[in-house]
Amino acid sequence: MFSADYATARARFRASALRHDVAIEALPITARGPNHEDLNIDIAWLGARNARRIILHITGVHGVEAYAGSATQLALLAVPPALPADGALVLVHVLNPYGMAWLRRTNENNVDLNRNFLPDSASWTGAPPLYRKLDRLLNPASPPVRDGFGLRLAVRSLRHGIHAMHQAIAHGQHRYPEGLFYGGAELQQGPRQFCAWLQQRLAKAESVFVIDMHTGLGRHGASTLIVEPGTGTATTAELEAALAQPVTGGTAAPAAYTVRGSLGAALPRLLPGLSLKFILQEIGTWSSLHVLHALRNENRWHHHGVGHLDHPAKRQLREALCPASTEWRNAAVAHGSDLVYRAADYLFGRSRA
Ligand SMILES: [Zn+2]
């Protein structure tokens, strides 16, 4: 089910939707892929057009993380949950197609889209004070070389504390446009179109269950469900009861770090007045240090090297966020599909087809 590249993933997704008689829309972005191919956010709509109850499954907010999400959506197109007359399953295939095509976490402007969903009136400047101190370590202006990053990061962790470091790095920043976790200077074209699409197409909905699928955080091959503050109308306890699974991010089990400008935090603003549940699903890959190191190398290669795909930094990042092992890949799709079936059981009643 895992595709070798964005173009293959897109063709499979569209062909499968066509085969199953599922309506599909495309939101194009102006950037191009490595073979000059079109880049689109494709959206498949299974079930009632004016559904009152909707499961919205989103993949690829972080580009290269989309390989697992894309494979999961192919599995869901083949075996969707049973949908009631007023229900729908909506699959958003790759919110950041540039990142998937170019093996980047960020989009065509180096923007981390899960730090970009801020209102126009928000402040689009600045960086956490500790990030400013770490900028030269995180974002050297040179191609990737071995430079003792792990050790240097460990030394800084001793000084600043590992939690404070993690929080400062991953929070999001608007000061260094070529840096990691850059949130952008404005809402990006993909998110802008997607927000407009949501407001138009989900206007008639009453209850929406959103699942945003990522990879790279947590135990290898395990699924971690995270609820962020302010992302919906349900409490952590309600989500745990609905899904019959543990959920992190409440006061009892806080998430590893908080971010500014996430997709989840934008949803209540975009879709006011409806019952909204939001879960961020992470499929664990390797350690956070390993993932950060891979992100750093790829970012250096993109900005200060040639940037083409046939380079160890690109292969390293793909492996960091989409491990090649069959066991990991099977587990990712099993966890991804299982969460959608659980959400369907909750939202539609027992529904497994
Ligand atoms: Zn992610």
Task: Walk me through what this model shows.
The protein has 353 residues and is an alpha/beta fold. The protein has helices at residues 6-19, 66-78, 97-101, 129-138, 149-160, 162-170, 189-201, 236-243, 263-270, 288-304, 312-321, 326-348, and strands at 23-32, 38-47, 53-59, 87-93, 207-215, 223-226, 275-283. A seven-stranded mixed β-sheet has the order 1-2-4-3-5-7-6, with helices on both faces. Bound molecules: zinc ion.
The assigned CATH architecture is 3-Layer(aba) Sandwich
User: Termini, distance in Å?
Assistant: 20 Å
Largest sheet: 7 strands, mixed
Query: Helical percent range?
Result: 40-55%
> Order of strands side by side in the largest beta sheet?
1-2-4-3-5-7-6
Helix and strand composition category: alpha/beta
* Strand percent estimate: 15-25%
Count of the domains: 1
Ligand inventory reads: zinc ion
Question: How many strand segments?
Answer: 7
Write down the Rg. 19 Å
Structural shape: globular
Write the CATH fold name.
Aminopeptidase
Low-confidence stretches: none
Q: What is the overall pLDDT average?
A: 95
**Oligomer category:** single chain
Question: Order of SSEs, N→C?
Answer: HEEEHEHHHHHEEHHEHHH
**Which CATH class is shown?**
Alpha Beta
Number of continuous helical runs:
12
Which key features would you list for this structure?
single chain; 353 residues; alpha/beta; Aminopeptidase; 7-stranded mixed sheet; 16% strand; binds zinc ion
What is this structure's SSE topology?
Layout: H1 6-19, E1 23-32, E2 38-47, E3 53-59, H2 66-78, E4 87-93, H3 97-101, H4 129-138, H5 149-160, H6 162-170, H7 189-201, E5 207-215, E6 223-226, H8 236-243, H9 263-270, E7 275-283, H10 288-304, H11 312-321, H12 326-348
Parallel strand pairs: 3-4, 3-5, 5-7
Antiparallel strand pairs: 1-2, 2-4, 6-7
This protein binds zinc ion.
Zinc ion binds at residues 62, 65, 214, 216.
